[in-house]
TrEMBL record:
Keywords of this entry: Transcription, Transcription regulation
Positions of the WYL domain: 122-180
UniProt protein name: Transcriptional regulator
GO MF annotation: an example: DNA-binding transcription factor activity
Domain HTH deoR-type: 10-46
Pfam families: HTH_DeoR (PF08220), WCX (PF25583), WYL (PF13280)
Domain WCX: 216-292
Species this chain originates from: Caviibacterium pharyngocola
Length: 296
């Protein structure tokens, strides 16, 4: 097993036990994982320093669940991978690591895309976000196969489903750009005042689109597929509204863009149906019918 995988597994195991409300003894952990006491101390003092502690001493640690909240299994796995993966990020130093857990970098889903050779641009965007500086760049659009110049106020670097995105505003209009399609990146020297409401929305929302959002989408899940959606959240901003006697689920997805939800519903056909807003389901069905008609 690679060193990064060993680290990810150790951190995930520690987080899982803390999440269960257990009081952990770093001496016992050092023996269990066959590492030095200093290594375990570094796990708590550096890698897990962002957590809130009910007990934090020279030997024992216990999580303050009221302040830290409850971590899902997916959260723990994602965090463990983040700690262990070295080739995904331009740097793995402590400063980058801590900042990426807060607001300049968001991780949503499995991290697959590598950015080898783009470390300088990645760090420049991170710097711009931290210092509230506008950036300018050329952006290649696959739809038109042309480059277009943009100047934006960057808010976040977000990794969703393996792809890195830059989320920012262009004259107060929220826009999302694929990082690898950006070139000729520069800092403009112009500062901007962040919109705190938008910033909080980006941090708390699974969506990549924060302009044209639907307040709530209700989705019906078949009894066959229900266990998968109960096991973990497979839809953006997913919340359980109701479970019927026959095992079907009604799920709510709040503040999302149509493009965030429709492809997922299509993937799960015939087990998912959009019940509200009804016109969203109608548009999806019409597009599928048109697709099938074009095959004939």
């Amino acid at each position: 097993m690679k060193k990064s995988e060993v680290l990810a597994k150790r951190i995930s195991t520690i987080l899982n036990r803390l999440n269960q409300g257990l009081r952990l003894d770093i001496n016992e952990l050092a023996g269990e994982f066959d590492v030095s006491l200093r290594t375990v101390q570094r796990d708590f003092n550096e890698r897990l320093s962002f957590l809130h502690w009910e007990e934090e001493g020279s030997r024992f640690y216990k999580l303050d669940r009221q302040k830290s909240g409850f971590l899902t299994h997916e959260d723990i796995q994602c965090f463990g991978r983040f700690v262990g993966v070295s080739d995904l990020f331009p740097e793995n130093d402590r400063t980058f690591y801590q900042e990426s857990l807060l607001q300049s970098v968001q991780i949503k889903g499995v991290q697959l895309e590598k950015i080898d050779g783009r470390e300088k641009e990645f760090s420049l965007i991170q710097q711009a976000i931290g210092e509230h500086q506008q950036i300018s760049f050329s952006y290649y659009k696959h739809s038109t196969q042309q480059n277009k110049f943009y100047q934006i106020a960057p808010y976040s670097l977000t990794n969703k489903n393996g792809v890195w995105y830059v989320i920012g505003t262009d004259h107060d209009k929220q826009k999302t750009f694929c990082f690898t399609q950006i070139s000729k990146l520069t800092l403009t020297g112009e500062s901007f005042q962040p919109n705190e409401k938008l910033l909080k929305e980006i941090q708390s929302n699974d969506s990549l689109s924060h302009g044209n959002q639907v307040g709530e989408v209700l989705v019906k899940v078949s009894a066959y597929a229900a266990p998968y959606f109960l096991r973990r959240n497979l839809l953006p901003n997913q919340k359980l509204v109701h479970k019927t006697e026959n095992g079907e689920l009604i799920l709510s997805c709040a503040n999302i863009n149509e493009l965030d939800i429709v492809p997922l519903v299509q993937y799960w056909i015939p087990h998912l149906t959009i019940i509200s807003p009804a016109e969203m389901q109608t548009r999806m069905v019409e597009r599928l019918q048109q697709y099938l008609a074009n095959l004939n």
